[in-house]
């Protein structure tokens, strides 16, 4: 079943090294839509990454740093990226060898479309 | 941090882990009859007693509604308030069915609570499968006596 977010998520997962792309609710950590490779647990990643993003955003605000534009988490086997737009978070899981710059550009561009897509999905 | 207190020791480690991971404010494990087995975050026995009675009633009502609408009982319920949310779920274990109620605020989220609830169920099942004496049934004629005893254990009056 496709949603207004499906083309955007499919475009992100076509990037080399991307293993999962998800749209989740920042407040609830619930998956709105996802494009996952085998072996990825969407619910688990969404719950934890949305919580992490929310706390990063609150930390940045507490430190008077302004809003969080792009969050990146590095781990031995890959990276996790998150950008927020309104009440939604766009999350990408990628191999360590993936092109960070390209993914970042694609995610920031996609994030600008999220509010309009969310409005469309609510209609 | 408010401690986790339990009537039966096998529940303690899984519940303690759930509370630490999910950052919930309150947690209760009870028999579907409303008999309390473990709690976290409550300061007064009367609040535990009230929450258990309400949780058992909601669980029974939701189960019956599910049977009427869907042919099987609803096993989870979530309600979002203005500042706090509740999640009510059923725990099926080798020792029987239990009801789990948790209250959480902005430190947690429904996604985290559901994620760690699944882990809690798995941990309780693992702990329950170890050789344990069978649970005594919750009998109506002993209900108040057992409830008083369990509340006394939870609040250090035993």
Task: Tell me about this structure.
The complex is a heterodimer of chains A (123) and B (158). Chain A has three helices and five strands. By secondary structure, chain A is of the alpha+beta class. Chain A has one domain: Dynein light chain 2a, cytoplasmic (Beta-Lactamase). A five-stranded antiparallel sheet of chain A has the order 2-1-5-4-3, sandwiched between helices. In chain A, strand 1 and strand 2 (31-36) form a beta hairpin. The longest helix of chain A has 23 residues, at 100-122. Chain A is globular, with a radius of gyration of 13 Å. With 158 residues, chain B is of the alpha+beta class. Chain B has one domain (4-154): Beta-Lactamase (2-Layer Sandwich). Helices cover 44% and strands 23% of the residues of chain B. Chain B is built from four helices and six strands. A six-stranded antiparallel sheet of chain B has the order 1-3-2-6-5-4, sandwiched between helices. In chain B, helix 1 (12-22) runs antiparallel to helix 3 (110-129). The model of chain B has no long low-confidence stretch (mean pLDDT 90). The interface between A and B is small, with 14 and 7 residues.
Outline the biggest β-sheet of chain A.
5 strands, antiparallel
CATH superfamily of chain A: Dynein light chain 2a, cytoplasmic
Largest sheet of chain B: 6 strands, antiparallel
- Distance from N terminus to C terminus of chain A (CA atoms, Å) equals 17 Å
- Please compute the radius of gyration of chain A using only Cα atoms: 13 Å
**How many domain regions of chain A?**
1
**What's the CATH architecture of chain A?**
2-Layer Sandwich
- Tally of individual domains of chain B: 1
